[in-house]
Structures are given as structure tokens and as C-alpha cells.
Automatic annotation (TrEMBL):
<feature type="transmembrane region" description="Helical">
    <location>
        <begin position="1067"/>
        <end position="1086"/>
    </location>
</feature>
<feature type="domain" description="Bacterial Ig-like">
    <location>
        <begin position="874"/>
        <end position="961"/>
    </location>
</feature>
<dbReference type="GO" id="GO:0008270">
    <property type="term" value="F:zinc ion binding"/>
</dbReference>
<feature type="transmembrane region" description="Helical">
    <location>
        <begin position="1044"/>
        <end position="1060"/>
    </location>
</feature>
<protein>
    <submittedName>
        <fullName>SMP-30/Gluconolaconase/LRE-like region-containing protein</fullName>
    </submittedName>
</protein>
<keyword id="KW-0732">Signal</keyword>
<dbReference type="Pfam" id="PF16640">
    <property type="entry name" value="Big_3_5"/>
</dbReference>
<keyword id="KW-1133">Transmembrane helix</keyword>
<dbReference type="InterPro" id="IPR032109">
    <property type="entry name" value="Big_3_5"/>
</dbReference>
<feature type="signal peptide">
    <location>
        <begin position="1"/>
        <end position="30"/>
    </location>
</feature>
<dbReference type="InterPro" id="IPR011042">
    <property type="entry name" value="6-blade_b-propeller_TolB-like"/>
</dbReference>
<dbReference type="InterPro" id="IPR050952">
    <property type="entry name" value="TRIM-NHL_E3_ligases"/>
</dbReference>
<dbReference type="InterPro" id="IPR013783">
    <property type="entry name" value="Ig-like_fold"/>
</dbReference>
<keyword id="KW-0812">Transmembrane</keyword>
<feature type="domain" description="Bacterial Ig-like">
    <location>
        <begin position="773"/>
        <end position="861"/>
    </location>
</feature>
<keyword id="KW-0472">Membrane</keyword>
Amino acid sequence: MRNRYVTNIVTTATTLLLSLGASIGTAASAQSFTPPAAATSTTTMPYSDLVQSQAIAVDSSGNIFFSRPASGILAEKPANGGAEITLYTAPSGGGGYPKGVAANDTYAYLTDYAGHLWQVAIAGGAATDILSSCSGIDNGYLGSQEVAVDGLGNVYVAGNNETTLFKITQAGACSVVSGVTLDANSHVSADAVGDLSYSTNGVLYSMPVGATAGVAVPGTFNSIIGLRADSAGDVFVTTYSGIVEVPFLGGALDGTRAFTVLAGSSQNDVAVAPSGTLYTTDGTNIFKNTLGTTRYSATAVGTASAAQTVTAVFNSTQVLSGIRYAAGAGISTEIVNAGTGSCAIGQSYAPGSTCTINLSFTPQGIGARNGAVILSSASGVIGSIAIAGQGSGAGLVLDPGTQSNVGSAWQSPAGVAVGPSGEVLVSDKTAGTVSYFAPGSTSAVVIATGLTQPGAIAIAADGTAYIATSNGTILQAPYTGAAYGTAAVVVTGLKSPGGIAIGPGGSLYVANTGAGTVLRYPNQSGTRNFAAPSVVGSGFKAPTGLAFDAGGNLYVADASAGSIFKVAGTTTTTVATSLTSPAGVAVDDSGSLYVLQTGIATVLRIPYTNGNYGSNSTTALGNGLTTLASFAADSAGNLYVADSGAPAVISIRRTAGSLNLGRINVGSSSSAQSLSLSNDGDLSLTLGSPLYVASGNTTDFALSNSSSNACSNGGSLISGAACGISGTFTPNVIGTRTETLALSTNAANATAITGAFTGTGINLPKTTLTLTTNPSGTVSYGTNVTATALVAAPTGSTIAPTGTVTFLLNGTSYKVVALSGGTVSAVISGLPGGANTIAASYSGDANYAASSGAPQTITVTLLASTTTFTSSITSATAVPPGSSATLTATVLSSVTGAKPTGTVNFTGSGLTLATATVNPATGVAVVTTTTLPTGVYAITAVYSGDAGFAPSSSASITVSIRTPQFDIGSAPTTLNVSAPGSVGTAFSIVPISGYVGGVDMACSGLPANTQCSFLPATVALNGSTAPQSVQLTIATYTPPPTTVAAWMAPFAALLLLGLWRKRMPRYAMTLACVLIAGAALVSLNGCGGNTASTPKGSSTVTVTLTGTPNGTTTTPANGTGNIVKSFSFTLNVQ
């Protein structure tokens, strides 16, 4: 049984694919797919111990299933790398030679040559022959060899030397698939929605859903020896010369666009994972083949990874003229040729031939690191492979960052994207253009014009640009390595497409906002297939922004739901809620989220620390933002914001923080404000001692980085955490004053990270700032507080103050608002529990000095939470150690709007047994574990609390985890019996944890001439939980039974006497007879009479029960591991 950590499972890929047609609308009408002239892949060998493996299959979780024909077994290799699991073993001598294998997320299937189709629950259970349901129509099915499953629960089985294809529904109904004729070497496959393909006489046939007969697929294949379909309907044909992909286009298989993805003749079978990964076996090894992409594991910044080999298989004659190592529109310095590959510039390659490139990865920064290797000939690009990796290390960003404008003369900037090399693309909705800024450049180059309201944009790892427009299209602008080509439509029929993104595997993802879906256009062996989109995730209302984390998980901002969703594989989880029209999302290397909220014109940082999102401890980024359209983040943590209201594109350089403390009169002091430091890396950030070296006008500023806020010299910040450096400005002279801090840390996101405090010394009339809050004093968590600042000029002044007011929350800038009419307000939400200080600082202007008002303290009381707890196991039924237990806690509050976050610890016996994260959307924290300790004890769910909710604990639940054995129930303590006479009583044997075995019973300590008996004499337990009753009887005046030897000896002597009599004198004979007769009488004494009496009095009698386990326990059954239990009672003989 595999461990599964579950949060909020919403759907599976099968369900998603069923709604694909309705979700996409007419998107498939104009799309196309051009097969790669050179298909690329990487191959690893995760398993090398599968001796005699033959057929293989894979489920959506990546668990691999395979048969071992010689051993007659169906086995599983878990995706998490655990030990091999034997699911089924065929009985010997029954003709059950395993053949075909298939699997879905519930069952694995195995055919054999004895005509069986075994269905085995993946979670464990007995095998069932479901082909028996076809007994009435199979006409003597001689043997089954091929099996396939679709996403609807249907199973298809083809026979050995049979012509019929059977379909068995999820309900067990069997029918013949009409219009299909098979032969002895036929193969069959099915996709998620039930499209079939099969081979007969070496010809491939396509039979889409609704068709009444198969249609031959154009193309010639070198002996078809296997078929497998992916979730989109593409079929992978295993041949003696390699594996060929036949794309499913226009509702059927298109053999004219078939292409070889893997070359070689050693494959026995192929399985297709939902991700598109191919698993193949050669009979001994299982190979993992990733098509069109390769991924490097997290690698320390500056450290070279192990080399990976990329293989290109050519589908047409090509002369290789170039290999480009790309990082977007730049040249990659992280992905380099490690040498020893065989691909050679100028070499001509024939169809079916291959060459290799060895690549190493050396990340230069933290987070997702994407690149591509592009192969070209004289005719252009012939193939490519997307490279994904993660740079591992600490990061440091500062807020507020230094803001500046990117470009100028914007009319209505709508989309912004940052490429792997730092290049920037900006779309202008009103101008109908897309502009390109080279890395480090401030000059724009227009790469597309005349577009219909271009919006979201994305940059692929090979530099290709993708642009969404308001008329439901996606345009592709190819990058040649030197310049952008003409943008052309590649997708049509979308409904108000929002965000777009390129996944780490090179696939294109589109938020089809109007349809409420996210679509994936796959990278197939190095070429994006725009004719075969699939739906990703579910439960969305109006998805807009898309982003990927360094691990390849997709994040979706949903403006209507006010939530951020995480899509990991086939599981969709809500990670943040109660947001105001979130239209964009980004993720840094710590896992912290950045959310663009159009409703309140902010970019919100939601920290991710210790496995939890701090939704109740967020930070607003950016000053002076108005009407936000989109944003993007680079790997260093810098932000780019498209503000259509300004209109402007704003760069927020967070690797160079800058905090302006305002215009202050010489000799006066500003209010204290903090420059925030955050660790956006995946490793701990070590702060130097000293933390910084200051330069500039150091006498004008008083700085503090005390240990109270974790920014102390020599301290550290865990991944995602933040601290602050506080500063006060007291100018000594008139003019701009700046103190610059060169920070000393182990951050790897930038080569030099600085912070600065600035201010302007003036000698102007003072203003007065009065700060009020509504409500004031003490509020409950979740209450929004409106802060109002009144800025008054000195008495007699005729000019009204202008400028801005910065509202601060706990010393950190919360929002900057332009002053109008002397009064300005800001709504402050998300106040954490405890005392909070709200302050306001007026910037000053050309006529007046800055000022600040008396801070206001708002005390936020934590909201009460309630925690309930359920467990899949209880003390009512004991389970053996290692059993899977699902612990579920629900944390609730009566307050709407705010949601509990944090963790729940499941504790018992003074230990934390498991921990789960609270899903903020549902309040549920759930974990499945197999490591609960042995014993009978109570488990309690303990909620940790967060910035807004108080901790709480649930009622406890007692669990019983015991090794398989038995207990004794209702045992007597005293029995009274008359002599002579008998007495009876009953006790029970209670099986524990599915105990299987026999139990024998015996008495000891009985008084003389007393016997005990049991009915039944032996109890056989078969795994049931039901107690077994045993009747115990004590009988007195019952001497021990006479032994056979005692009475047999005299009679044996008489027999011998007959043999001796001829040799004995008569007197000796007479004496012998007398002696033998006496002995016989003695031996028969006790058969009658009343001499075997039981003495009166009390005795302690012990009943011993000896169990001999078999079948399901780990206790040996050879006697040395027998289970022995007993009970004693007082026997009173009267």
C-alpha cells in the first residue's frame, strides 16, 4: 500500500477529457500539427530488475504494472520508488501464462493464454476473472492476449487466434464490438473517451467513438507488435524498428503525419503516462522515455549536474546545419554541450537514423531555469528539446523595490512577459502591437503590429512568442536566434483567452477564461501540437493568470472565484482564497505566491513557509499603481507590471530595495519605516555579520536591525520568511540624502543586492498630519480598518499640500495614495492577530515639509476556531501495523470572509504522529499514513492557529493497531462444581487485526480425577472480526484415562503363552496363567466402582490457548512463533 498525502482532490484526467469538446468550443477548427523532422527524447532506466517482464501499463500517478510470464505474476512498481508489489500470481499448471497488461487508477488487468482476464484492485484484493461474463457469447474463447482500458471504465480484450473483440463495461456487461475483425497477431488500444485502434494483418485501423467499423490508417509499419493510446487519442505503434506515433487529428488517426519517436528493435511493449512519457521494456529493464523535453533535478547554483543524453531520430533526410543552445531570445550559459555526443554539423542523416547530444546543466540563479536546444538545417528548424531545471539556493529580495518605467508612449499596455534571459515582451491593447526589449535594454523593438487587442503573452524557452487576442486567437511569432518572424495564428475559437504560459516541458497553456477552462497544447517530441488540446485542472470559474513553480506545478488565478488554484498532475487544490479579482499569479523559488489583484490595484505577496501559505500575513508591493492589467516576475524576484491606467509598464527591482522617508526639515526626524528583506529561495538565507556595509549619507539616517525582527547580524531566514531593517531620517543639510546598504548574505538570486534609505532635507513650512482609524481600538480578526490622514498646511497658508501619503502597517509600507483635497484614506485588510500599529507619513512637496501623525494601535483578537476529527480506523476494529489510516481534521470558524490556515498535528501517546496542512478553501486537513505506532491509544487533532485564528483541539479518537493475534473475552473467574458432577461456562476468542490461524486449548491445575473439555476442541479463525464462542466443561470423579499399554500387555502375554505352552511344564503353565490373569484384573481396575473420587476444596485452574498463525501474519507458523495466551479461575469442588 502506498502512502498518499491528500489535500483537496477535485478531479481526474479522465473526467476532464470527457468534457473537452464542450470546453474548447471551436478551438480545434483551424489548428494544425506538423510532425518534427527530427524527434527528440531522453531516456533513463528507473528499473533494471524486471527479469522476464513482458507487457507493461501505467496509471495516472505513474505507478507501473507489468507481467512476468515465467513466474506467472502481475506486479507493480510504485511511482514513489517503493518495493515491488505482487498483485496476482497465476496458479501453476492451469495454463495461466500471463500475457497482456492494462491499468487505470482503480484496477490492473492481466490476460493469460487460459482464456482469463484477471481484474485486480490496485489497493489490494483478490483477482477476479471478468471474462467469465462473456461466457455466453465467446464461442469457446481459447485464450486472451491483448487488453486495453478507456477512461470510462470499459475493458477491451482480444483473443489468441480469435477474430472477436470483446468489450466489458464497468458494470460487468459483456458485448462484442461490431465492425472489428481480428487475427492471431492483433493488437488493440483505447483512449480516455473510448476511441479504439487495432491491428489486423499488419494494418492499423482507427475506430473513433460512434463509428460502426474500423477505417484503415494510411501508412506502412514494420510489423506491428503493440499499440498504446495516450489521453489525447494519439497511438504509439511498437514495431521491430522502433516506436511510431500516429497523431489523432480531426476525429481520427492520421497516418500521413505519423513519425518515429524512438528507434530500436528491443522493445517488448510500451505504456503511455498522462504526461506523455513513454515507458518501454526490453524484457529485463524498464525505460522512461521523455519526448521533446528533459528535466534536471534541483541543482545547487553554480554546480554542474550530471550529463543527460538527448537522442534525435530523423523522420526525413536532413543535413544538420546548426545546434542552438537557447535561453529564450538569449544564448544559454546554463545548458551546454558536455561532449561525446554524435550529432555533427554538416552530417547527413537518413530517415530512421539517430544522433545524440550530451547536455550538462549549471544553474546561474535560483528557481525555474528553462532553456532549449534547437536543431536546424538549411530549411529551418527541424527539431528541438525543451530543457527544464531548478537552481537551488537562498534568495534575497527587498521591499519596497526600486520602481522605474519600461519604455514609454504606451496607450494601453495589457500583457507583459519575461523570458529566461531577462528579455521583456509587452503588448499594447489599443495600439495593437507587441514590443520586445532585449535583456538589459531600455529600447523597444516592435515585433508585431496590426493585432486585434493583444493581451496576454508568453515567451518559450526557444524564444518563440505567443500572443492572445480578444477575438479568441493565439498567435505565434517564431524566433530565429537573431530576430522575430511574422506572427501567425495557430489557435482559434477560444473564448476570451486570459493568461498564457509555457510549461517546463515546452507545452503551451492557455486560460480559456470565457469557457472556464485551462487548455494544454502539448509539446510532442519537440513540436507543439495545436490540433490536440486537452483540459488541465477543473473547478475554475474564470481562470485568468497562469504560472509554474520550479517543480513544474501549475498555478491558476481565478478572478471570479477570488482564488488561486494549484494543479499538480491530475489533482487540483485551492491554495489561496478571499482575494479581490486576482488576474495574475507568479511563484518564486520558496513557493511564495505573488497575486495581481485588479479589484484593489495591488500585487500581493503571500509567503510560503514551513509548508503553509501565510494568507493572513500578506504584503502589498508596488507604489502608485492604478489600473492593473498583468504582471510577470523574473527568477531573481523582480516584477514587471502593466498598468493600463497610468498608462505605463513598471519595473520593480527588488534586488535593489529603496525606501523613501520623505521631505523632512533639517533638524527634524521622520517616522520610522522598515525596509523588508525576504528569502525567495528554497534554502535557508544566512545573514552576514555585519548584515550590511553602509555608505553615503550615513549620519542622516538611524538604522536598526535588531534580533526582535529576525534581521540580526549573523541570523538566518528560512525559505519564504521575511524580516525588516528599520530606518529614521534626520537630515543635517538641505538636499537629497541617501544611505546605501551593501547586504552580505549567501543569496544566489543576484550577484549584488543592495538596499537604500533616501530622503530630502528641506527648510519649508511644516504640515500637520492627523491620523484616524475606523473602527479603532480592538477589533476581531477579519475586520477591515479604514485609515484616514488629514494633512493641514500651516495657519495662513493659501496653497494646499500635494504629494502622497504612505500608510504603514507595523512599520512597513502598506499603500501609497496621492493626496487630494488634504484628505486621503486607505482600507487596510488582513490585520494579523495581536497589536498592530497603523501609521501615516506625508511625503511633502515643493511648498511643504513632510509630516507624520501619531500612530494608531489596532488590537486584533484572534477568532475562535473549532476542530473536528475523523479517522478511517478506530478501536472498534483493530488493524495490523503498517495499515493505511486516513486522518481528517476540519477547522471551522463562524466568521465569513476569513479562512483558517496553518497546520494540524495529529498527536497521540505524547508524540506527533502526522501533520497536515489546512486547505484554506475548505478548512480540511487530511493525511494518509502507514506509520502509526503499534498500540491502543487516543489520537487528537490539534490546530496550530495562525495570524487570525486561535488554536483548537478536537475530541480524541482511540485507535487500535495491533499485530494479528487474538484476545480472550468473557473468561470466568470462579466456577463451583459438585463432586461427582460437572459445570459448564462459555468464553470467547476474539480475533485481532484479521488474524488467520488455529487455536488449541488445554487446562492445567485441575484437582485429581477431574477433566476439562472444549467445544469446539479447536477454533479456526479466518480473518473475520467476529468473536468465536467456546464452551468449557469441568467434570469431577473422572480418573485419567487408562492407557492402551496398561491393558494390552496382559492380553499380549496370553497370546505369547499359547506359543510357549508346548515347551513349559504343566505346573509352570498353571502359575503363568494365574499371574497374567491377576495383571489383567489390575489393569482393568477403574473401569467401574467409585474409587476415582475428586477431593473437595479450591484449586486455581489455568486455561492455555495456543494459536498457530498462518497465511496473513508475520509470525512464523513452525511452532517457534506460536501465540500463547491464558486465563485462570478458581474451581471450588463441593
